[in-house]
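Replying to the earlier thread about multi-chain prediction with a worked example.

Input:
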Amino acid sequence: MKIVALAGGVGGAKLAHGLAQILPPEELTVIVNTGDDFEHLGLYICPDLDTVCYTLAGLANPETGWGRVGESWNTIANVEKLGGPAWFRLGDQDIATHLERTRRLKEGQPLSQVIRDFCRAWDVRHTVLPMCDSPVRTMVDTDEGELAFQEYFVHRRCEPIVKGFRFDGAEAAEPAPGVREALESADAIVFCPSNPWVSIDPILRVVKKINKPVVAVSPIIGGKTVKGPAAKMYTELGIEPSALAVAMHYRTILTGFVLDNADLKYEEEIKALQVKTLVTDTLMNQLTDRARLATDVLHFIGSY
Amino acid sequence: MKIVALAGGVGGAKLAHGLAQILPPEELTVIVNTGDDFEHLGLYICPDLDTVCYTLAGLANPETGWGRVGESWNTIANVEKLGGPAWFRLGDQDIATHLERTRRLKEGQPLSQVIRDFCRAWDVRHTVLPMCDSPVRTMVDTDEGELAFQEYFVHRRCEPIVKGFRFDGAEAAEPAPGVREALESADAIVFCPSNPWVSIDPILRVVKKINKPVVAVSPIIGGKTVKGPAAKMYTELGIEPSALAVAMHYRTILTGFVLDNADLKYEEEIKALQVKTLVTDTLMNQLTDRARLATDVLHFIGSY
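Result:
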């Protein structure tokens, strides 16, 4: 069974890791949001791609979900000492990724090739693709004006009230080499439990069309997100955050939906959207939860 | 007594450090070679400036003379793991200097302002100036063709045979703000024991004219250099490397020359160049040697 998973950062990386533990390399492609990418300190940084790759490589920091395990912070501490910007916490090992990526991009290598080479160096055997090679920038419209995503997300800690989103460059972007082929040969597409607004939507904007069964895993459990601002965004946009809201969000392309036991009450309403449902334990607090949820999702897909 | 010291890397930094231990901040300006500067991994790196600043700040690695004390190497190890260039060994703390400098230069700050701010952050109270704000690139003509300085120096470990030097951009370069003023108000100029060909010559090429007494300290002791390729360069250019050769090198602007006890035999020949001489112990192996040699040099200057 060939699966394509669409993923943002931490939550997406966890389910992708679970799927990678079950599916052989040729049966899983992870397409990752690059709308969060930005240039900072002269470095080209791809937070979601790096989180997915580090997680699949077993190099991710298990405490934070992002960044590297066993990380040191000598560079950023010294940047701060020199009065430079230190609000985006870059670890010493992580900076190597950004330095070498920036160097290769400036040499003219496409991002997808850089990621392919990095995955080889890190022994990531499943295919990880950026959604596109050209820059797409998620812009957050807020009550304080439009903010670049990392400015909103990290620097301003998601405090400004969200009014909408714009994906600069998404309409003109070509999907990265391999993205269309993966989508066309897939048996099903899995939307990982990532932020619908700023992780999955930018990917959908770039790939434009999906003609395969789509199973989404709700990133909202009991009205809350495990991590990140998805629930806060729904509220600020006038929508009650819930598994139902996520299913509604995706309703035009959704064939199956995975929601947490805590959200059982929404199952009937979601079924009424002509969407099959799986109610299970979707929290991935422990490493073993990842393969367990992935197994549930794959069985669910196999069942229809 | 106002002193301007011209310096390259390690040897120059040591004497500058000695002078800084004796002279108050307003009486010492160190003008540093930037011909070794280069861009690498997207970083703007100034090896001589950083060595001088780290040394004056007490942050230099006492083992190597360059780089930072208590350094870690997590970034470069990971760049290497990704197949990136690792021949120029950048430490994690050191990378902060390059990242923040590159960021500021890209913002449009002149190098001299960046160095002034860095010196403040590092509590370096004496004035350190780059020779100029515009890029000058030392190019080494060799039997294998022309090489950029760091390519010759670090990557090729000074192995190619030297035929000459070119300082790209030096003729057009304006001395950095403060350089002319420091030279005009100085009582004497000290050429630190740095490489005459690739550390002091580029500075002289940029400042063009010096109308003050010049005292040079020989970087060649007993026909050898403590560090670096100066002796090898003299040999390859058909000149026997010696304190005499260094005095000859500078003879048109030299008023005083400091040579090591080991080179006593050259004293008369150097005096014959109408140059006053001081024969003393010029090796700076120990920290205390720096202030001792600086004291000798200052007494020598004061004596004529």
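Chain A has a mean pLDDT of 97.

Feel free to reuse this layout for your own posts.
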